[in-house]
Design goal:
Blueprint: H1 5-12, H2 15-40, H3 47-55, H4 57-69, H5 87-103, E1 106-107, H6 112-148, H7 151-172, H8 181-202, H9 206-217, E2 249-250, H10 261-280
Antiparallel strand pairs: 1-2
């Protein structure tokens, strides 16, 4: 007997099958991640050596879930929501500038023009590797969670998963610094909320990819007007401390960057406000999407 489209959709979204897909996704992600570490054997500060394979591990997990468990990756197509990808860096930049006088941060206004010109390039450069994460997190895992759980609970699942995923890079390979993990956790929480909204509004991953790339290319580098630190994740020189003539801001690493408290608090507020607006003004979406 032929399977009707409705029966096929029901089977694809079956909770039992979705649990299997998540298991396949996690196992493949961990296997690829661990395999890259075993093959490349990165040492302390070797972020540039391991960053690219690690960032594509979620995409490998999603591909495995598609091929081995009948999963689905929602890529979508570029929409006008791409412009919103630059909102987090713009807000963080503005807040950092305003708070510079009371936070021990030095501002080099002459760098701003170069930074603005380079920002699209920095965002696109960062997106080349960010796409590996976003295909897994927002293309596969987020839509799967949202079929069965509300927005806030889905975000509450993604945040610790993403945090653990980044932890080895912080502990051993020179990504950020251990003392900045509390701020990084706050920043990550806000970013998950914001990109979750972009994903649902645009029905795809591309706005999230660009937002991720823009964040890595600007906020994560302390707003450096330099292409050298954009690909991937400050790989050539590490992230903080933020020093040098190409830096718009210089100052304490506890203040600047995605491991600093200015970006962390700003991103959390922006993420929460965006999520609240999104849930109060629902847009047309998947018929099986849990709304709240």
């Amino acid at each position: 007997m032929a399977t009707s489209p409705s029966q096929a959709a029901t089977a694809r979204e079956n909770p039992v099958r979705d649990r299997r897909r998540v298991v396949v996704f996690v196992l493949a992600l961990v296997a690829f991640y661990g395999g890259a570490v075993l093959v490349l054997r990165p040492g302390p500060g070797d972020l540039g050596r391991i960053a690219v394979p690690v960032m594509f591990a979620p995409a490998v997990g999603a591909l495995a879930a598609v091929l081995l468990a009948g999963g689905r990756v929602r890529l979508g197509r570029p929409t006008r929501h791409l412009l919103l990808a630059f909102l987090p860096p713009a807000v963080v930049l503005a807040v950092t500038w305003v708070l510079a006088a009371v936070s021990g941060v030095e501002v080099r206004p002459g760098v701003l023009g170069s930074l603005l010109v380079l920002t699209p390039v920095l965002a696109l450069s960062g997106s080349l590797t960010a796409v590996g994460e976003e295909v897994g997190w927002r293309g596969f895992l987020w839509p799967l969670l949202r079929r069965h759980r509300g927005f806030w609970l889905s975000a509450a699942v993604i945040v610790p998963v993403w945090w653990v995923y980044h932890l080895p890079a912080v502990l051993w390979w020179g990504y950020g610094f251990v003392g900045g993990l509390p701020a990084f956790t706050v920043a990550t929480s806000g970013f998950v909320l914001f990109v979750g909204v972009l994903t649902e509004r645009s029905h795809g991953v591309w706005a999230g990819v660009l937002a991720h790339g823009a964040w890595n290319g600007t906020v994560a580098t302390g707003f450096a007007a330099s292409l050298g630190s954009a690909v991937p994740e400050c790989a050539t020189s590490g992230c903080p401390p933020f020093r040098g003539d190409a830096q718009l801001f210089t100052g304490p690493q506890t203040v600047l960057g995605e491991f600093g408290w200015v970006a962390a608090a700003t991103m959390l507020v922006l993420g929460v406000l965006t999520a609240q607006w999104h849930l109060r003004h629902p847009a047309a979406s998947d018929p099986h999407l849990v709304r709240s």
